[in-house]
User: Fold SDR family oxidoreductase from Flavivirga algicola.
Amino acid sequence: MKVVIFGSTGTIGKHLIEQSLEKGHQVLAFCRNAEKLNAFSNPNLKIKEGDVFNLDDVSSAIKGQEVVIITLGSGSKKSIVRSQGTKNIITAMNNNGVNRLICQSTLGTYESEENLNFFWKYIMFGWFLKQVFIDHELQEHYVKNSHLDWTIVRPGAFTNGEKTERYKHGFSSKTKSLKLKISRADVADFILKQVTDTYYLHKTPGLSY
Assistant:
């Protein structure tokens, strides 16, 4: 598959590049600074520098692709890069006739708030990361209203653990027996499973141990 990754230099993005190449996908990594991906060398990998706030840059990266993956980071607590970057990506997808979108958000948005414990609900997302959380929810709003073939993945807090493929996904918002943690490698694993699987089409699966 021809896959473009937005947020490719982030901690999830790098795992996505590595695992995508292992699966034989043709990968275009969109980023602001190509030097951050110098460790990768593969004939199936192309790196394109650009600004996600620039629609022309985004459109150029999406043209000719089959699947778009968004793992944009915030950059700062007041950033709107997730929501506004995603809005540009959706516009570019519509303009280029690309329909499959997989977007990484966070566990705790909308109805999945019920999965969170007191610490994450009121201290982290309710106060410390409030603006980041708002940006996640706005990002999801744009995706859900895009009319694309979308899947929104909602992982718990990231860890540096190995890929296990042993994680819970698609659980109810009433589920309380969650560790609220997931390794970055396993997040990438689950995201890439959606490239060829439509079970979670137009759904928002949570992801946690």
Summary: The mean pLDDT is 93. The two ends are 29 Å apart (CA to CA). The chain has one domain: 2-208.
